Amino acid sequence: MSKQQTVYLPLDSVAVSLGANDVARVLEEDGFTVVRTGSRGMHWLEPLLEVDRGGERVGFGPLTLENTEGILACLRGGNYDHPAYVGPIADIPFFARQDRQVFERCGVINPVDVTDYEAHGGLAGLRKALDMDPKDVCAEVFASGLRGRGGAGFPAGIKWHTVADAEADHKYIVVNADEGDSGTFADRMIMEGDPLLLIEGMAIAGIATGAAKGYIYLRSEYPIAAEVLQHAIAAARAFGITGSDVLGSGKSFNVELFMGAGAYICGEETSLLNSLEGKRGEVRAKPPIPALEGLFGKPTLVHNVISLCSVPKILEKGAQFYADLGMGKSTGTMPFQIAGNVKQGGLFEAPFGMTIRELVEELSGGTRTGRPIRAVQIGGPLGAYLPNEMLDLKLDYETLASHGAGVGHGGMVVFDDTVNLLAQARYAFEFCAEESCGKCTPCRIGSVRGVEAIDKLASGQDPEGQKELIADLCEVMVDGSLCAMGGMTPIPVESAMKHFPEDFNIHPAKS
Amino acid sequence: MLRDTLQQYVGQTGGLLQGLLAVQSERGFLPPNIESLAADVFNVSRAEVKGVIGFYADLTMEPPKKVTVRVCEAEACQAVGSRALKADLEKGLAYSGADVAIEPVFCLGLCSVGPAVQVNDKLVGRAELTNVGRHVVDAMEQAK
Lengths: 511, 144
What we know:
The structure holds 2 protein chains of 2 kinds. Chain A is α/β, with parallel strands linked by helices. In chain A, 41% of the residues lie in helices and 16% in strands. The two termini of chain B are 25 Å apart. Chain B folds into 2 domains: 2-55, no CATH class; 67-143, Glutaredoxin, CATH 3.40.30. Helices cover 50% and strands 12% of the residues of chain B. Chain B is an alpha+beta fold.
């Protein structure tokens, strides 16, 4: 071979779980220069190999140990005639219809190379923020209408102002990277594919609110993200994005990675703060709110990964640019994640306002099993189960809320017509019982009673009485729980009972 | 030795939890004297140490099996048959008599390519008996 050809292959967990590391070894042994990137989010094509063809990136996928040699032979001969050739990435319909604001570099650049990051538009937001008055940075975020992407959808700007206005000797930025909801992987993908964006967002937040220290609380189930983040944090420090003189501004901001230990509840912000202090991850009562009394009792800006990753673009292009995306009070873009029983799953970033059906049927090709879609659970384990008839709902905070559902973290889990919603409702209680921190009674005991009631219902022991009991339990959990774990577990249960009553229609057993 | 590992985390943010995790990752489990030792090193009560160990799924006082297979039991993987896969794996491995533990995990972030499984440190997407079995055999070989 005359010269070493450069190829791009994801290091993303999805690609690795489908054999990307084995393929990378073959490529390197064959003399190719392999740049490991994030994933483009078209997970049915992973591992997706990309090369530069006349200035645009084209791909082959999915790669297997069986077809890799054949593809390499094509590449050496400058020939693209291969069954796995997918053409220019930008032309694939699933990709072409997106508006990538947060994920624009994911899958394109080397995730831990600051020069590559900057060459693709990175650091423009932080530079702009450093030239502004910190108050104006908070105002810009407020004006953009950005709402927290973790699930609650709280206006980010209000939090920023609260922390900025608080008087304290220490303040903190804490990134909630405890992405435990099934069906969501946007945080993982951006941390593996463009971690410097998160660090840039944290630095902007630190400078705007007067916090000099930032922590990334990462769940232990994401070992690849942990490794990439470690490298990115070191690269950011070496370049001066963080440290005692942020990009020569004289301002100080440092970032540290903190690993969780396998507790779903630590995705709840006050539980996360206790865990970060090294304690049991039990929920704290609010008030006080973390923005005033958070980590070690100091003002703390706790944000989801995607919320902070949305910030650099807001600073770079201005609040108005961001506010013009989306619809109504749901501004900007959202990385939707299409998962479960789906033919072409992955991550699709778009402004709010698309319908669920467009994503799960049109763009993702329906179920992997080829059977009809019966239910979609939207927004994680605490999200509603929606029936096929409701899939034409628009994806924005208000529309879903008015139908008893929520966007959550943007995850959609698709089920075909073999799903039994009684089993799923039981699982919702079971999961709550397993993961409850135990601090408040409705969540700790209500969830266990819920499992029992559903089991009795299923076996026909006074089915109508059990349904009443479940409704009663749900009411107590909603009204009496300290946090969203107990307070929202009734959402999957009650939506399943409401939209799929036939699965709960059990005849009384003969005694 | 154990004390030295813990000592490194004294005064650090979340030091007790991080110290326990460091011991866990060094040895694969927390030894029986961990409670009194960590209480002494971090100047907290034994009850507090015990409370932290009991709270987090990753911390365990049981020595691990040679190979641990974690099967995702969350919704996205349920939608593509993780319950049946786990039952099949349990049956198959019980039959083989191998030193393997099968444990639940709640989401590995591979929700678009489920069922998701982790065999020791290897992630397996679109898991089925054959590819999980292959990884178990590899892991057994490595553990020798």
